[in-house]
Design goal:
By secondary structure, the protein is α+β, with helices and mostly antiparallel strands. The chain contains twelve helices and 19 strands.
């Protein structure tokens, strides 16, 4: 490591987790000339296809995690459901960024909510409970409609039950029996859902993208829009003041976490115009995938720059952009004809190298840029529709 804290050339990055985020981190590392090792269970996770070495192990295997840390110059992760104790063991022999402490806070909804409240960062009204027996009292306190969420191991809407009225409490208690600690949270009357990706270096330097607007279907991200270029103008319910506040709040979250790396702060914007932090992801985020084509520096290169102590890149998006997820449902009647999507001018296709398509599983995404966000959205949705209509028989 150089005197200024920057990692020297011929660096090898280690990524814990072998999914699509790890794969895209690996592709960014390859382009930058960095070595790339991955630790993930299984024989051939998507990230292993672009790695120099694949350590096949459980994500709580402390012994292998230590050996993995010794094989690289800096270790990072692409997934929250990693044992923070295993990362702590790795940090005894190598550099781990973001820190195990930052992961420990953000991988558990209860700890995350308490952290946000402690630092005066606004959230939806919530109550933490030890098990389902406390849910009815918590619902009375928080009010309905509300959402009951498992405290740990939740993503893409997993481990969540919506309670529309008090008659639904019993069903929620049954559905979450044995789930352990829970968060009961008010359901926000949404004007928009936003996400802000921020990178922070080892000396507190930050680079923050303008907010992305997200639309979910079945609690899974469906489409992301990036309407804001250099000069921010109003778009829908989001104006310059909201954009500035979201960026400032995301930077405050990163600073309070003492983050070194990249994180995404998810926001609710309610109909009264109040910004509320929903969740923090201490790694690249699905909504940030469009930065590969649309931004001067992708979120994946930005994470690598941050963990290596290199100067952070520009977060400018020269043109509006849109991204659409491709879920396994598109493969249910045979392989989609990818050429049909690529006939739409200006559309980029990313597939994640997953061997099996399942309903709800993220298999890839499409990105489009255009002169307006409406045009970008129209292009990316037209490409996805074309892909799903034109099929080839499965091999």
């Amino acid at each position: 490591m150089s005197p200024g804290g920057r990692l020297l050339p011929r660096v090898t990055i280690g990524v814990v987790g072998g999914g699509q985020l790890g794969r895209m981190l690996g592709l960014a590392a390859r382009r930058m000339g960095l070595g790339f090792n991955v630790l993930a269970p299984g024989d051939s996770p998507p990230a292993a296809a672009v790695a120099d070495r694949h350590f096949s192990a459980r994500l709580d295997d402390e012994r292998t995690m230590r050996a993995f840390a010794e094989s690289v110059d800096v270790l990072t992760f692409e997934f929250e459901n990693v044992s923070s104790a295993a990362l702590e063991a790795a940090s005894e022999v190598g550099l781990v960024r973001p820190s195990p402490a930052a992961l420990h806070t953000t991988q558990h909804r209860g700890r995350e909510k308490v952290f946000l409240r402690l630092h005066g960062i606004p959230t939806a009204r919530f109550r933490l409970v030890g098990d389902v027996s406390e849910v009815p009292a918590a619902v009375e306190e928080v009010g309905v409609p509300c959402v009951v969420k498992t405290a740990g191991f939740g993503y893409d809407g997993k481990g969540q039950v919506v309670i529309e009225d008090r008659d639904a409490v019993r069903a929620a208690v049954t559905a979450l029996a044995g789930a352990g600690a829970l968060v009961v949270e008010e359901r926000v009357d949404l004007a928009a859902e936003l996400s802000v990706v921020v990178a922070r270096g080892p000396h507190g330097d930050t680079a923050t993208y303008a907010p992305f607007l997200n639309r979910h279907v079945g609690q899974v991200l469906d489409v992301t829009l990036a309407p804001f270029t250099g000069g921010v103008t109003s778009w829908g319910p989001v104006g310059p003041a909201v954009v500035a506040a979201a960026r400032e709040e995301a930077e405050r979250v990163a600073a309070r976490l003492e983050l070194v790396g990249l994180c995404c702060v998810e926001f609710f914007l309610d109909r009264a115009g109040e910004l509320l932090v929903n969740e923090i992801a201490p790694r690249p985020h699905n909504s940030g995938h469009l930065t590969i084509e649309a931004a001067e520096t992708s979120q994946f290169e930005q994470q690598l720059r941050a963990v290596c102590g290199l100067p952070l890149g520009s977060t400018v998006l020269p043109r509006p952009a849109a991204m659409a997820n491709l879920l396994g449902d598109l493969w249910s009647d045979g392989d989609p004809d990818l050429a049909a999507a690529l006939r739409v001018p200006g559309v980029a296709l990313h597939l994640y190298g997953k061997s099996e398509a399942r309903p709800g599983r993220k298999m890839g995404h499409l990105t489009a840029t255009a002169d307006s966000v409406e045009e970008a959205e129209e292009k990316v949705l037209r490409a996805r529709t074309a892909l799903s209509r034109a099929r080839r028989p499965a091999a």
